[in-house]
Amino acid sequence: MDNSRLFLIAALIFVGMLMWQQWQADYGPQPVPVTGPQTSGETGSVPQETISSDLPELASEVGSVASGDTTSEQIATTTQPQRLLKVDTDVLQALIDTRGAVVRSLKLKKYPTSLDRPNDWLELVHNDSDSLHILQSGLRTKDERAPTHYSDYSVDQLVYELADGEDELVVPLRWQQDGVEVTKTYHFRRGNYLVEVRHQVENRSSQDWLGSEYRQIQRSRPLETSRLLYTYTGSVYYNEETKYEKVDFDDMEDSQLKLESKGGWIAMIQHYFLSAWVPGQEDTNLIYTIANTRRNPATYTIGMRSQNLLVPAGGSGDFSSRLFVGPKIVNRLEEISPGLELTVDYGVLTFLSKPLYWLLSWYHGFVGNWGVAIILLTLTVKAVFYKLSETSYRSMAKMRKVSPRLKTLKERYGDDRQKMNQAMMELYKTEKINPMGGCLPILVQIPVFIALYWALLESVDLRQAPFIFWIKDLSVMDPYYVLPIVMGISMVIQQKLNPPPPDPIQAKIMMALPFVFTIFFAFFPSGLVLYWVVNNTLSIAQQWVITKRIEASTK
Asked: What is the CA radius of gyration of the chain?
């Protein structure tokens, strides 16, 4: 293979990787959901099937219990005015609706929407007219002696605030009917995005109580998506049998997922952040999905329903789950539940991206600047592959040295490609040049470079992280396009060090490539462009030294 094509191949592989990622998102194979009969009532009802045949079957369900639409019948049966509880901790601000005890808003105090508005916190959970992302949970029984996320709860106060010196904030909501009292309690903790949610059932009636708990996340499609830098937004679930699976919005519209699962979790993920329900890891649940396209905006729900719990007359029982709403920080997610760190989606190169991210974080612990940490990580990767790069650049330097003779051979043999190839092979043999010597080392390194790309793209630590001077946020594009222009210049310099392409068409493509990539990278996060600038600069330095040595040895 002609060494002059290497740079073109590496660039095209990178662009092809981005195109493949987008194609997979749009047309790739998806997990096959387990379909079942639709329940009666509105689209979006909690599945009425029990998890195993030895559990008592629930005879009926309220049709719209998971749809997100309040029917006229439900409005008529509500007796209390709808109110919102405000909850403030050091890292979260939440609004909990007394109707259903639904979390309708949750803001992340450590993550403002922009650097210019530090007090305008990111509202990950929201309930707007054109966009929805809410967290619901409730209980179900066949005789409706249980609060769903449409039932009215009573509260002692409407404002809860984590006081100085306190580590936990407890927010109780109460419901009662026909001798059954349910206390739904949210437990918030200092510095923590993980919230414990408990349903405590007190059965003071003369009849046994049999019911189950459901938890679900409901959201609409994102209003804006990036086609250039694709990151997945949608639902995912995990258990030890099927591992990590995505169920996107189109999948939910096609068919309803129903899957028995032990342990695991469900989540809605987006770039940098997620919301997830995590049940007890010894519990068995029914995972289900629901699409409701009849409302505007259309809503998509992923939920988990527990096994039935029998609470005898005069007895008590409780359900417990954990709710996580926050940033996708790998080490924190690993502590919460097995597999939750997979929501930091590195793709097929996770086995490479995870150690690269760990090393990036380790460097940041020393220098305190994510931009400097990227530079140090790039230096480390270049050092690891130094010998491979040296082999490649030596081959390129030798090809550069014989390029005038190759041009002469082309002029001598004209269109006789057979004689031309024979003469080229004789020349390579005489000069001890391996035509593949410059290609293979580069191909070996490409997976590592792509894995590093995804490690940087998925790292929430780079969000609003400053570097130097004009770069105040490594997760957004360079506002003055300095880094993309420097990267384009570095590509031109690299081309000058490479042997010139013998094919005129290929030469024109190579000349245009730096301009194309400069425009392409102008819209990339500056942290990613910084990596490419540093990598290209180091490659230029190494290649220049080796080329000069080869040229000096032939004089």
From this structure: 30
Alpha carbon 302 to chain centroid, angstroms: 17
Higher-confidence position of 44 and 137 = 137
Characterize 394-416 residue by residue with b for buried, 16 or more Cβ atoms within 10 angstroms of its Cβ, and e for exposed.
bbbbbbbbbbeebeebbeebeee
Same-domain status, 372 and 311? no
Say whether both 190 and 312 belong to one domain.
Answer: yes
Rounded to whole angstroms, the Cα distance separating 303 from 279 reads: 11
d(CA 217, CA 276): 8
What's the distance, CA 470 to chain centroid? 28
CATH classification of the domain holding 249? 2.70.98.90
Which region, left, alpha or beta, applies to residue 325 given φ > 0 means left and ψ of -120 to 50 means alpha?
Answer: beta
Place of tokens 């400069």: 518
**Is the Cβ–Cβ distance between 397 and 544 less than 8 Å?**
no
H helices of 181-301, in order, are 249-254
* Spatial CB neighbours of 445, under 8 Å, sequence gap ≥ 6: 385, 388, 389
Both 180 and 223 in one domain: the answer is yes
Strands 273-278 and 194-203, sheet pairing: unpaired
Report the alpha-carbon distance of residue 6 to residue 23 in Å, rounded.
Answer: 25
- pLDDT tens for 427-480 read 777 777 766 655 655 676 778 878 888 888 899 999 999 999 899 999 989 999
Question: Both 310 and 391 in a single domain?
Answer: no
Residue-number span of the structural domain to which 533 is assigned: 3-19+355-553
Q: Which helix (H) or strand (E) holds 511?
A: helix 504-521
Helix (H) or strand (E) holding 120: strand 117-127
Which stretch of DSSP H or E encloses residue 319? strand 316-327
What whole-number distance in Å separates Cα of residue 524 and Cα of residue 231? 13
Say if residue 326 is in the same domain as residue 400. no
- Angstrom distance (rounded) from CA 490 to CA 226: 27
In angstroms, the first-to-last Cα distance of the chain is 27
Q: Decide which of 295, 320, 343 is a domain's last residue.
A: 343
Q: Are residues 118 and 138 in the same domain?
A: yes
Half-sphere exposure (CA, 13 Å, Cβ side) for 459? 30
Do 391 and 424 lie in one domain? The reply is yes
- Residue 410 to residue 179: CA distance in whole angstroms: 96
pLDDT digits (tens, 9 = 90+) for 230-254: 789 999 999 988 899 999 999 999 9
Residues contacting 257, CB < 8 A, separation 6+: 33, 34, 247, 251, 287, 288, 289, 302
**501 inside domain:** yes
Please tell me the pTM assigned to this model.
0.81
Q: How far apart are CA 49 and CA 36, in angstroms?
A: 9
Three-state SS for 339? coil
* 228 vs 209: CA distance, rounded Å: 54
Say if residue 337 is in the same domain as residue 452. no
> Of 296, 297, 300, 303, nearest to 250 (Cα)?
300
Distance CA 196, CA 186 (A): 6
> Which residues on adjacent β-strands are paired with residue 140?
212
Kindly report the length of the chain.
Answer: 555
